[in-house]
Amino acid sequence: MKQCLSIMIILIIMAIAQNASAADNNNDIRVIIDVSGSMKKTDPLNLRVPAMKMLNGLIPDGSYAGVWSFGRYVDMTVKWGKVDKDWRKQADIGASKIHSNGLFTNIESALDRATLGWETADSKVKRSIILLTDGRVDISKDKEKNKASRNAILTKSIQALKKTGVKVHAIALSKDADASLLKQLALETVGSFETAESAEELQKIFFKLFERATEPDMIELKGNEFTVDKSIKEMTLLIFRPKGSKLTQLHPPNAAIINSKLKGKSTWRSEEGYDLITIKEPKVGVWKIDAYSDPYNRLMVVTDLQLKVGDIPYYLTPAQAINITAELHNKNQKISKNSFLRFVDFNLTHVDDNKHENQLALTYTDVRKDKGQYLHLLEEKLAEGKHSFIVTIDSQTFNRHKRVDVEVQWPVKVEVKSTTEPGTYRLTVQAREEYLKPDTLRVNVQLKAPDGQQSKLKLDNISNVWETEINANQAGLYQALIETTAQSVNGEKLKYDLGAFSMVGVYQSEPAEIEIESKPNLDDRVDLVKAGPSMPDEKTSWVQIMIIGGVFNFVLILIVGGIYFMFRRSSRKVEFSLDDELSDGKKSKKGKEPSNA
């Protein structure tokens, strides 16, 4: 009896431990991969395979995951289930079967199939979809059917995803992909969206979306070193390396080198483009890495000592303030004892779209109920573009590190482009379809000149794009002050003050008035003779008159001189011939002898 009771107690303890483990790792990740024929162009080397294998190796043990591929039809490539050694083996086999032979792009059916079992919300589970496609909704040669399917995604599918608490992280692997649809899926579900300019970028983007879906604990890599503390139970090192780069090697503290040949107790996964190394119960101390240095290299850890960063939206407008909070947890309990925290440094770094780093202060809260929390309220207006916020905590014995990437943009797209004419610009304003209903956009633009004067610009609406030409004809800075109103995709009325958009003005003088003098007729000439010479008009240039008069006099002198020269020459020739005649006559008379009779 006692033996049975002991066995029951052991089983209960094991069940509690298993449930606790499951509660600690509550990820449910569904991956949806496009295998349509167009992928032959956008992913000719089928780099989706190594990217999927990397994801298979990254998903934490104890998570639930599955992989679906789609073209016209949807197939379960890797059966949904609990992630363990056997699941990873099947996932690698499934990844190798990814192809590019599908006929259509049935995104609607893919979402429906991949979300089976998510009929109701579950606050204990973190549900994520990673969706990769290079095209648009394409289920038929009938355009109306394609349009209806797209509308169904934007209404029925999105509502179902929001209702069950699913975050969609989408990747567009082509400029032809329906970026507006994918981004709206991400925005409505508080997920994220990325565009891969080439298939070579897939691995890094897959990793970025994995980070967002699972929010792993990380250790900061300081150059080629990192420190492992005694709370770390497992570590996974991801090293991105281009073809031909040196092999990755790890130097543990006071132990033998670890590499792909001398693995020791490590699990080593090497594919084209990366190395993924997992080590359980790593040695405490300073480790060194001898590997290709890439800013995307990461060290993820399984640990009881965790850095928790408050939710920051992946998409923000420049007008939104950002509240950043950070806490240190041990075994899921916030650490609030000053005796411990005073030995820990909390740091915050902001990296803007131009890669400029700015150190911000994380201040300890003065609210009693939030004891143990560090915060920073960023109220300054951020420029449109991509920004990163990196929270790092450091002590003498451990460090933790988390990075959040956000995109800052207005829901309205504004472009100011210079034309071929100096000082002339083309202004266009249009709604971003993933945020707003384009036909509801209304625009008010005030143009502020360098002298401070303002005037309202008239814009033309051509197919829901508002545009006008701006003539900045004064030297100095012009500013277009833009305000808009519109309805969101959900019908909410929104108003945005987009601020000032600058242009450089160029001084342009007024065109000179050219008067064309017509020939006077005969009567006019008579009148002019009678009237005599007239005084020049006030607008006439005296310099021009003097030049014209000088040229006229010079020509006149040349003519008179020429006549005089010709006359003198002619006179000289006449005199010379008469003299000759006379001298010849004299000679003949003088030299002739009379004849004798």
Low-pLDDT regions: 1-24, 524-532, 534-540, 571-597
Q: What share of the residues does DSSP label as strand, in percent?
A: 25-35%
Q: What is the CATH superfamily of the largest domain?
A: von Willebrand factor, type A domain
Number of helices: 11
The percent of residues in helical segments reads 25-40%
**What name is given to the CATH topology of the largest domain?**
Rossmann fold
Mean pLDDT: 86
User: What is the count of distinct domains?
Assistant: 4
Q: Classify the secondary structure makeup into a structural class.
A: alpha+beta
Could you tell me the radius of gyration in angstroms?
43 Å
Count of extended strands? 32
Strands of the largest sheet, in order across it? 3-2-1-4-5-6
Task: Write down the CATH class of the largest domain.
Answer: Alpha Beta
Coarse shape: globular
Biggest sheet statistics: 6 strands, mixed
Distance between the termini: 202 Å
Tell me which CATH architecture of the largest domain applies here. Answer: 3-Layer(aba) Sandwich
